[in-house]
Each structure stands twice: as structure tokens, then as C-alpha cells.
Amino acid sequence: MDMASLDLGASAGSYAGVRGERLERDDGLPITITEQSYRVTDLPYLTPEDVKDIAARIDMMSKVAVAKGSLVVDSTNRVTEPGPSAPAWAGAQLATYM
Known about the structure:
0% of the residues are buried. The mean pLDDT is 76. The chain is mainly α. The chain has one domain. Helices cover 26% and strands 4% of the residues.
């Protein structure tokens, strides 16, 4: 099993950026980072060593994280989970994807 990487493909056109708008950080919201790992293998199974290596990488990320959560399970434990303090549009927008 090898680590895999994703690279940028061919350009899809010029980057428009924020079109002259000024961006301002909201200190009331956390800075979030998404960590994704990709593995590739020619085998139709994982070896015990593969599983141990994957588990070790996940464990390392969990140890250094201040908070963690998931976008793919029902109980996300995300600090940024939409709730009573979220903008009104957040819940409605998320509902369209569920």
C-alpha cells in the first residue's frame, strides 16, 4: 500500500478571487482544517500492517487536534455544528444536502 496524493489538474479558467471584496476573519468562529489521507493498493485487501499504519496516522492527528469532528456521521461532535447560534440560512442550506 502506498500513500497517494492529489494534484491540480488542467486549469478550468482564470481565478476570479474575491472580486475586490474585503475579507475579514470572524474571531468568534474557529479556524478549521480538514485532514484527508488517501491510500492506493493493487491488492483486494488490507494487511494487518496497513491497518496499523492507518490507525497510527489517525491517532497522531487526534492527539494534536484541539477539537475534532466528522462531516459524514450522524453524531459529528463539530464545534461548528449548526445550532441556535448559527445563521438562519445554515440549517436550511444543510437540509438540502441531507
